[in-house]
Amino acid sequence: MRILLVEDDPSLASGIRLALKPEHYTVDHLSDGATALDARTEGEPFDAVILDLGLPRLDGMEVLNAVRRHGSHVPILALTARDAVDNRIAGLDAGADDYLTKPFEVAELKARLRALLRRSQGQTSSLLSCRGITLDPPTLHVRYQDAPVTLSRRELTLLQEFMSHPGRVFTRDTLTRLVYGWEEDVESNAIEVHIHHLRRKLFSDVIRAVRGIGYVMDKPAKEEA
Ligand code: CA
Questions:
Q1: How far from 8 is each of 14, 52, 65, 165, CA to CA, in Å?
Q2: CA–CA distance from 215 to each of 130, 165, 176, 191, 218 (Å)?
Q3: In terms of pTM, does the model score above 0.85?
Q4: Which pLDDT does position 75 carry in this prediction?
Q5: Number of H helices, E strands in the chain
Q6: How close is the Cα of 217 to the center of ligand 1, in Å?
Q7: What's the gap in Å between 33 CA and the centre of ligand 1?
Q8: 113 near 163, Cβ under 8 Å?
Q9: Facing residues of 144 across strands?
Q10: How far is the CA of 82 from the centre of ligand 1 (A)?
């Protein structure tokens, strides 16, 4: 899961990043509204946005309005320092899916984010299940044919994305952004290496290469359906 965090308070931003990292989110951080809007309108593939409403250059509320005007349905969790009920209502009206008033507990932020992501994926149960593999997002426990499987953080990120969208073909660029965000110096074969490990730890055709395009996790065979 890739999250865009837009927050101009550097210590709060680094606190949120630190808190989300063990949950295996890839968090990219921007500190002003104008840059955030550029990232959104350029179609960067984020699964959710944590958006401070009080931002320099372009106010968070304006970012929110513009993102929704562009037709994006990305889940947005608004952060507001302003305790006024008016602001929260305006934020929700402008298209935020949920909001948190500062100061907040990191545990609450995590819970709200999880709920937001679950809702956006239309999952009634949070357990992902496909082709004999189960993945429980809150605990990140993976089992294959009922036996536990140990995966690295990045392998988990990839597997969760594939399992959330069986049948969808992902380009290598999309997967690289998902796993590494805007980190630089990513080895050009990094995604291949992670997929190789997933095949070894699960089964050989768990993720299939689509020549010239990328990778896909096939849906369960039709005859089984
Ligand atoms: Ca702020």
A1: 10, 8, 19, 33
A2: 16, 12, 12, 10, 9
A3: no
A4: 93
A5: 8, 12
A6: 40
A7: 10
A8: no
A9: 133, 147
A10: 10
